[in-house]
């Protein structure tokens, strides 16, 4: 996971969500104990938060990578708009009691939206949003959301994921408790990521061997010297935020002599 900056200007279509949220809040006023629960679930408009304009803006900001696993979106995968704070309900851990309502008032809020692959969103994280103190969980707009202490790292938030998660070869490891919670919630160590990560490291390893050669060595011909400079330039690109698995690549290069 690498940090990215979300564009400050929110896409226009999200403004339509204001009226939808207002209608949901009216339901809460009418029946605060039941509205937004499993018996009377809220309905959300995916055409608003999932609008093409929203997806395009996030996809560009995230360099065409999943916000969580940092893999490039496949040609047959369009990706999902993911709510960092779940909109319908939330769970402290997988299989735990569902906490209703979810963060419904943030369903169309720009700063709560990310672009993720379907696996990270639908199969892994789903509605997980653990807090250090679950009793502080906000359930309505008027609650103090600032009192929450999320255990998950927001890749577009103020904290750099690299301070919490590192890589040993192709596997992530936790540097902090928040890093551990994030690895578990998004299954960042899942086996499906092993193959693309290992194939990527094979490329990186080969480039490093070439880049480690001394271009001033008189025994090398001009073509080899040119390849050395190309390899060094390629490695610099592979650790930039826009590159796939950039954090893993940087850790690998720093760890290999």
Provide the fold topology.
Layout: H1 17-30, H2 46-49, H3 52-61, E1 80-83, E2 90-91, E3 98-99, E4 113-116, H4 118-125, E5 165-168, E6 171-174, H5 177-186, H6 194-211, H7 222-238, H8 246-255
Helix pairs in contact: 6-7, 6-8
Short note summarizing the structure:
This protein has 257 residues and is mostly helical. Helix content is 35%, strand content 8%. It is built from 8 helices and 6 strands; from the N terminus they run H-H-H-E-E-E-E-H-E-E-H-H-H-H.
Account of the 3D structure:
The two termini are 24 Å apart. The protein is elongated. The strands form three sheets. It has a two-stranded antiparallel sheet with strand order 1-4. The chain has eight helices and six strands. It is mainly α. The model has no long low-confidence stretch (mean pLDDT 94).
State the order of secondary-structure elements, H for helix, E for strand: HHHEEEEHEEHHHH
Radius of gyration: 22 Å
C-alpha termini separation: 24 Å
Shape: elongated
Total count of strands? 6
Number of helical stretches of at least 4 residues: 8
What keywords describe this structure?
mainly alpha; two-stranded antiparallel ribbon
């Amino acid at each position: 996971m690498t940090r990215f900056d979300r564009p400050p200007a929110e896409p226009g279509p999200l403004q339509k969500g204001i009226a939808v949220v207002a209608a949901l809040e009216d339901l809460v006023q009418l029946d605060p104990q039941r509205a937004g629960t499993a018996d009377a679930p809220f309905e959300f408009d995916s055409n608003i938060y999932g609008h093409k304009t929203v997806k395009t803006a996030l996809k560009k900001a995230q360099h065409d990578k999943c916000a969580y696993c940092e893999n490039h979106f496949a040609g047959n995968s369009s990706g999902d708009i993911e709510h960092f704070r779940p909109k319908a309900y939330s769970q402290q851990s997988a299989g735990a009691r569902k906490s209703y309502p979810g963060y419904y008032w943030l369903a169309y809020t720009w700063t709560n939206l990310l672009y993720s692959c379907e696996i990270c969103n639908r199969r892994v994280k789903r509605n997980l949003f653990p807090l250090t103190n679950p009793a502080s969980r906000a359930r309505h707009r008027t609650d103090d959301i600032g009192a929450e202490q999320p255990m998950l790292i927001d890749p577009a938030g103020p904290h750099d994921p690299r301070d919490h998660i590192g890589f040993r070869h192709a596997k992530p490891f936790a540097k902090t408790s928040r890093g551990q919670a994030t690895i578990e919630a998004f299954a960042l160590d899942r086996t499906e990521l092993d193959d693309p990560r290992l194939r990527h490291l094979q490329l990186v390893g080969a480039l490093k061997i070439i880049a480690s050669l001394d271009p001033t060595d008189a025994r090398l011909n001009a073509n080899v010297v040119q390849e050395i400079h190309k390899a060094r330039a390629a490695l610099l690109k592979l650790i930039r935020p826009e590159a796939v698995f950039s954090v893993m690549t940087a850790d690998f290069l720093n760890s290999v002599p």
